[in-house]
Design brief:
The structure is a single chain. This protein is α+β, with helices and mostly antiparallel strands. The chain folds into two domains: 101 residues, lambda repressor-like DNA-binding domains (434 Repressor (Amino-terminal Domain)); 170 residues, Beta-Lactamase (2-Layer Sandwich), CATH 3.30.450.180. It contains 13 helices and eight strands. The strands form two sheets. A five-stranded antiparallel beta sheet has the order 5-4-8-7-6. A three-stranded antiparallel beta sheet has the order 1-2-3. Strand 4 and strand 5 form a beta hairpin. Helix 2 crosses helix 3, helix 4 packs across helix 5 and helix 8 runs antiparallel to helix 10. 33% of the residues are buried.
Length: 291
């Protein structure tokens, strides 16, 4: 397959057809839906996965030619009304709609992020006060920028990588550590795709994505689904090598002073076996620090 340069930002030409991030996203989301999910009749054998272009065009209220040009990158300025209709037809949630608008250039870009990501000192002080709740600060590509002691202990000191995207897909122990690995992996990729839309061309995100596209077939399959959304897992299960099974609630907060950074706090239901395991983990970590 031959790639040549195109004059539009983010566009490329593939075998004579210009593609774009917007077109890639539309194709990816179209492939995730079935006619049955939208109440469309199905006749005979279908040659495509998901919806046909003609079906999306009909439901959106645009011509087939116009929709084809959107996917091929020959039409790059859809109206807000068309985007709203596409978001409804493709069953996009809030994050997905925001991502669609950004790709179409109809959403203001955030300020350029700092070249070097660091967690703010005042945030670190706050995290240290949470002795019973693991807390970590993540950068745009899910680099671990800071932890409190219990957060460090929860992830075992991050022995494979201090980038959660890399460790999720490349660490052989990740599928044991996360009993629901596939859900965790999908959630991670969707968050990374959303971050990529917020800061297009970010060198750290591109570095992580490029590495994983070479080293992980699972990552490639999930990345090509073009799902873009913020962290959705409100609970996460862990199989910790020291304290065993834990089911923790997950709270994610945007760090307003540092666009792209997230504060992630884990919490166990009081009195639960997970709370007891988390307390034991904290005691073990404290013993190691004293020793």
């Amino acid at each position: 397959m031959q790639h040549t340069l195109d004059t539009r930002a983010g566009a490329r030409t593939v075998e004579g057809m210009t593609a774009s991030p917007l077109g890639d996203y539309l194709r990816g989301r179209r492939a995730q839906l079935t006619p049955e999910a939208l109440g469309l009749p199905v006749y005979g054998r279908r040659r495509v996965v998901g919806l046909r272009r003609e079906e999306v065009a009909m439901l959106t209220g645009v011509s087939v030619d116009y929709y084809v040009r959107l996917e091929q990158g020959r039409e790059v300025s859809p109206s807000p009304q068309v985007l709203d209709s596409l978001g409804e037809v493709l069953r996009l949630d809030h994050d997905g709609r925001q991502h669609l608008y950004r790709l179409a250039g109809l959403s203001p870009r955030p300020e350029p992020p700092a070249a070097v990501e660091e967690a703010d000192d005042s945030l670190l002080e706050l995290m240290l006060s949470w002795r019973d709740s693991p807390a970590i600060v993540l950068g745009r590509a899910f680099d671990v920028l800071a932890t409190n002691p219990l957060g460090e202990a929860l992830f075992g000191g991050f022995p494979f990588s201090r980038n959660l995207t890399r460790s999720t897909f490349l660490d052989p122990g990740a599928r044991t550590f996360y009993p629901d690995w596939h859900l965790v992996a999908e959630n991670t990729v969707a968050g990374l795709r959303l971050a990529d839309g917020l800061t297009p061309g970010d060198p750290r995100i591109r570095e992580v994505v490029d590495e994983l596209r070479v080293k992980s077939a699972d990552f490639v399959a999930m990345w090509e689904q073009n799902d873009a959304r913020g962290k959705r897992l409100t609970e996460k299960r862990f199989l910790h090598p020291e304290v065993g099974h834990m089911e923790l609630r997950v709270h994610v907060f945007d760090v307003r002073g540092a666009p792209g950074q997230e504060l992630v706090v884990y919490h166990a239901v009081p009195g639960s076996p997970s709370a007891e395991a988390l307390s034991l983990l904290g005691a073990l970590a404290a013993t190691r620090r004293i020793g």
